[in-house]
Fold this sequence. Notes:
Strand order of the largest sheet: 1-3-2-4-5
Pfam family, one: Thioredoxin_4
Shape: globular
Distance between the termini: 31 Å
Largest sheet: 5 strands, mixed
Protein name: Protein-disulfide isomerase
Keywords: Isomerase
Number of strands: 5
Oligomer: single chain
InterPro entries: Thioredoxin-like_fold, Thioredoxin-like_sf, Thioredoxin_domain
Family: Belongs to the thioredoxin family. DsbA subfamily.
Radius of gyration: 17 Å
Amino acid sequence: MTRLMSGIFASVAVAAGVYGYAALQGGTSLPSNPLIGAAYAQEAEVDTSTIVEMVQGAEDAPVTLIEYASYTCPHCANFHQGAYKQLKQDYIDTGKVKFIYREVYFDRYGLWASMIARCGGPEKFFGISDLIYKGQSDWARAGGATEIVDALRKIGRLAGLEEEQLEACLQDGTKAQTLVSWYQENATEHGIESTPSFILNGKKIENQSYDAFKTLIDAELDG
Length: 223
């Protein structure tokens, strides 16, 4: 999935009216729209140090692999159902690779999915992310904003999150705006323009097959 980072807010403000209309028409409470707030507050300083990095693998692993991904990106879903599982088994779980997952927000739906994934803390993050990617074709096409957020709530409940906990996470506008600022800082630092993108020991690489990842990682290990 390739989209220009500079266009992240381009359609969000236009959708604000529709978003508000959906919230009034349905009985389900929709999250606040932090992308709009963040768009209007670009000059304000946001403390992004409160955002927890989601990490798997040994802290002192010789290789660090950072993935930049969006929950609404089909290529990211394919990676997580394919190459990622092999990488986890062969490199992450064996202490050879420290894996860091960083969210990219192209739209409010991806942001809401991120807020659900993070709602259970680091212990549940990757398990919930797996459920989100497995069900991407269903929840992302559930309908309008109300239907999509309901489908994401269902995933959260399936992962063992309580309803009040889910609502508190989804309605945390400050956290959402901080996540957006955090994403922008990271994307700017590493020049991220598409998802999934990867940083392998400080070097940017594109999405590729497991065998290609293996070759690159092995070269770093042999280093």
